[in-house]
């Protein structure tokens, strides 16, 4: 059977069985009636103490109050703070150094803080933890002596001795104790017959009597005594497989005085080879009471078992928080590991000498504890050191201290922070009315403008004969006036901006900024925007109206009437830029993006798709230009009604087609042949003519010639006649 060894690092306590903005904002929605109520609504809320403000508009976000005209000096906006009361540095010491008392060793800082919290405003601080070297350690060895441990008993005995030797290498201030356990001493966990109570083992086995838990050796620095007592232990027995180990652990944890626990690091080594009883198992033996968590050792023996059922990780825990207070943890562990949420409470793989930091943020909501001071504590689980935090709550404004009770300005209330804080049952700006009489006809009459029918112009409520204007969802918008007849959001607009963005809206009328005029403050009186490059207003070809040129010459366009799309030279001026942007060629192809981004380029398929002068409401110039390859490209240039330069270009070049070689060669060859034939025919004709002329001349000379008929004496005939003698003439 395998031996299960659990190493538990523990103290006595280480044991366990928008919405971006909703309607309006939180300040307005709070409907605060006095300053303290306002600042509890949220961290962004401020209270305007200007006596001229109405109660309904005093509580708002700071930016809104300032825009409304409330002076910063008259805005109550308290902030929380923190003070470090004790911040002793963590201990840096090596093993073998001068021995210190446990009280003089610090592993956590700071030790004491005071936080002043305002609702919704977190206060944050850093908590540093360092595992001190050579820190005193108490180790308690808890051994299972049930019968199933018989084959492992010697190993367990040796393990205890080995643990003691290893711990002495870690710290020079070390104490060790020893205890053992078997099982609950009732049926059906053990046999309750007298013989079995003396020797629960069968056959000739000699076993010790069963018991639940026994404290054999209190914590001591005497290692020899520990080794001796561990070696003297004998096996006992029980009937079921699970053991009563949890009963033993509970007693080890709570019996601090009997065992001798010091206020130092406490380790519990639990050795067993079996499982443990779960909650409710005790019902089998008639045990129904839950464990009371108290020590029940008599003569170092656990007497109530029949009635009840090493830190490598740092985990922070806090005491119970007051209602409305929350804590958020962020851990900064080894190797740069950062965690938030529940994982922000802990750091793993922490060795002796390691230092880690936790960022802790404490936030309150409203006014917890009715403003009374409270204290919470934060500590690493398994350690006795802790951080004590005193919590103070801001529930009232500073001006509250200067409040005047029963002031002449308030009929039934206290004048504080620029307004009346009415007593119970009283309402009104001066607390002049009873809450039971706020809706009478006589009071409503003074809330109707010009004796009309609408109470407070349907934009407010009549309270004690005075209009209290309604609040808008948008905190920037508000009703005002004696009868709530005015507002600051129903003025003329220009460019979708109230008063063109150049004025403010007061009682539905735009009050324009200097150099602006018009019902929507959209007409500029500044002529500098109409000045052309030649220092003339609108280039001398138009008039400046509300800061914009109105060109009087139809050929000229643009913001200063300097653009003439149909004037000569326009095509040549823009040729290189059109060529580089449309076709990536030309002299400006390398600087195209820098020099030629001043117009919008639109490509079309053919020349028929180009804008025609009669189709557009502005002049259009048609251009035809040739590139270095003798290719033509066609485009139009224009300035549209939005003063944007537009170029429409046919996306294909019109290039001359190249020569067809075969017909040319064939034509040349055919030409040569034909010319040759023609020359031959001419030559032949000339030769025929020449021959005929010569022949005619010959004939003529022949006819005119007179030949002599006499024989030439020296002439000898070329014919020789020979007669065959044999020829008989037959």
From TrEMBL:
Its membrane topology, per UniProt? Single-pass type I membrane protein
Q: Where in the cell is it found?
A: Cell membrane; Cell projection, Invadopodium membrane; Cell projection, Lamellipodium; Cell projection, Ruffle membrane
Claim: Transferase is one of the keywords in the record: no
Offer one example of a GO biological process linked to this entry.
Answer: cell migration
Query: Does the entry annotate any disulfide bonds, and if so which pairs?
Result: 27-397, 35-45, 38-70, 48-59, 201-207, 255-295, 333-347, 367-623, 395-399, 410-420, 417-456, 422-431, 433-447, 462-467, 464-499, 469-484, 486-491, 505-510, 507-538, 512-521, 523-530, 544-549, 546-592, 551-561, 564-567, 571-580, 577-655, 596-631
Residues in Integrin beta subunit cytoplasmic domain copies:
684-730
Question: Family per UniProt?
Answer: Belongs to the integrin beta chain family.
Tell me yes or no: is Transport among this UniProt entry's keywords.
no
The signal peptide here is 1-20
**What positions does the domain Integrin beta subunit tail occupy?**
571-660
GO cellular component terms? cell surface; focal adhesion; integrin complex; lamellipodium; melanosome; ruffle membrane; synapse
Keyword annotations of the record: Calcium, Cell adhesion, Cell junction, Cell membrane, Cell projection, Disulfide bond, EGF-like domain, Glycoprotein, Integrin, Magnesium, Membrane, Metal-binding, Myogenesis, Phosphoprotein, Receptor, Repeat, Signal, Transmembrane, Transmembrane helix
Q: Which GO terms describe its molecular function?
A: C-X3-C chemokine binding; collagen binding involved in cell-matrix adhesion; fibronectin binding; integrin binding; laminin binding; metal ion binding; protein kinase binding
- Provide the transmembrane region boundaries: 661-683
Question: One Pfam family of this protein, by short name?
Answer: I-EGF_1
Name of the featured protein: Integrin beta
Provenance organism? Dicentrarchus labrax
- Domain Integrin beta subunit VWA, by residue range, is 35-397
What gene name is given for the protein in this entry? ITGB1
């Amino acid at each position: 059977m395998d031996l299960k060894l659990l190493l538990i690092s523990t103290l006595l306590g280480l044991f366990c069985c928008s919405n971006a903005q909703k309607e309006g904002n939180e300040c307005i929605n709070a409907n605060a009636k006095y300053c303290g109520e306002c600042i509890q609504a949220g961290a962004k809320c401020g209270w305007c103490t200007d006596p001229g403000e109405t109660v309904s508009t005093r509580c708002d976000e700071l930016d809104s109050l300032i825009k409304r005209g409330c002076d910063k000096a008259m805005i109550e906006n308290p902030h929380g703070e923190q003070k470090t009361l004790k911040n002793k540095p963590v201990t840096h010491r090596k093993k073998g150094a001068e021995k210190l008392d446990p009280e003089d060793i610090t592993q956590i800082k700071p030790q004491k803080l005071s936080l002043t919290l305002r609702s919704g405003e977190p206060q944050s601080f850093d908590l540093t933890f360092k595992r001190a070297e050579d820190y005193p350690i108490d180790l308690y060895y808890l051994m299972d002596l049930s019968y199933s441990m018989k084959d492992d008993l010697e190993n367990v005995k040796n393990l205890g001795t080995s643990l003691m030797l290893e711990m002495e290498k870690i710290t020079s201030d070390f104490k060790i104790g020893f205890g053992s356990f078997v099982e609950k001493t009732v049926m059906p966990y053990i046999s309750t017959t007298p013989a079995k109570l003396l020797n629960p083992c069968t056959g000739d086995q000699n076993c010790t009597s069963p018991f639940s838990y026994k404290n054999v050796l209190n914590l001591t620095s005497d290692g020899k005594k520990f080794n001796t007592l561990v070696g003297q232990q004998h096996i006992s027995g029980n009937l079921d497989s699970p053991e009563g180990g949890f009963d033993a652990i509970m007693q080890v944890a709570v019996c601090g005085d009997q065992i001798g626990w010091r206020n130092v690091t406490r380790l519990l080594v639990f050795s067993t080879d079996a499982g443990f009883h779960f909650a409710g198992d005790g019902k089998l033996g008639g045990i129904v009471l839950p464990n009371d968590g108290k020590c029940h050792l008599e003569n170092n023996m656990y007497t109530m078992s029949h009635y009840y059922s090493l830190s490598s990780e740092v985990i922070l825990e806090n005491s119970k928080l007051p209602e409305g207070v929350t804590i958020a943890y962020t851990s900064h562990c080894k190797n740069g590991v950062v965690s938030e949420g529940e994982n922000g409470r802990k750091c793993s793989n922490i060795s002796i000498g390691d230092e880690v930091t936790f960022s802790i943020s404490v936030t309150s909501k409203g006014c917890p504890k009715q403003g009374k001071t409270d204290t919470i504590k934060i500590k690493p689980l398994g350690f006795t050191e802790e951080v004590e935090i005193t919590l103070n709550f801001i529930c009232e404004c500073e001006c509250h201290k200067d409040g005047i009770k029963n002031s002449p300005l308030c009929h039934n209330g206290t004048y504080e922070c620029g307004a009346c804080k009415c007593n119970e049952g009283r309402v009104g700006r001066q607390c002049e009315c009873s809450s039971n009489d706020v809706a009478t006809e006589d009071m409503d009459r003074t809330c109707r403008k010009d004796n009309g029918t609408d109470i407070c112009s349907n934009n407010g409520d009549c309270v004690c004969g005075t209009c209290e204007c309604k609040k808008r969802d948008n905190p920037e918008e508000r009703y005002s006036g004696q009868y709530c007849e005015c507002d600051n959001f129903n003025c003329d607009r220009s460019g979708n901006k109230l008063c063109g963005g150049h004025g403010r809206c007061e009682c539905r009328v735009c009050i324009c900024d200097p150099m602006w005029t018009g019902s929507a403050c959209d007409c500029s009186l500044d002529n500098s925007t109409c000045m052309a490059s030649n220092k003339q207003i609108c280039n001398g070809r138009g008039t400046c109206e509300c800061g914009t040129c109105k060109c009087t010459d139809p050929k000229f366009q643009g913001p200063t009437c300097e653009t003439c799309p149909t004037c000569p030279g326009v095509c040549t001026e823009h040729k290189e830029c059109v060529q580089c942007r449309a076709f990536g060629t030309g002299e400006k192809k390398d600087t195209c993006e820098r020099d030629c981004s001043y117009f919008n380029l639109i490509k079309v398929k053919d020349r028929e798709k180009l804008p025609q002068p009669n189709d557009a409401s502005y002049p259009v110039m048609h251009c035809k230009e040739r590139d270095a390859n003798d290719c033509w490209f066609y485009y139009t240039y224009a300035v549209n009604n939005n003063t944007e330069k537009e170029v429409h270009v046919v996306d294909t070049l019109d290039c001359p087609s190249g020569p067809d070689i075969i017909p040319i060669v064939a034509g040349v060859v055919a030409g040569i042949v034909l010319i040759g034939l023609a020359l031959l025919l001419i030559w032949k004709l000339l030769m025929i003519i020449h021959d005929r002329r010569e022949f005619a001349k010959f004939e003529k000379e022949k006819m005119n010639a007179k030949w002599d008929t006499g024989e030439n004496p020296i002439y000898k005939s070329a014919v020789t006649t020979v007669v065959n003698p044999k020829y008989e003439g037959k």
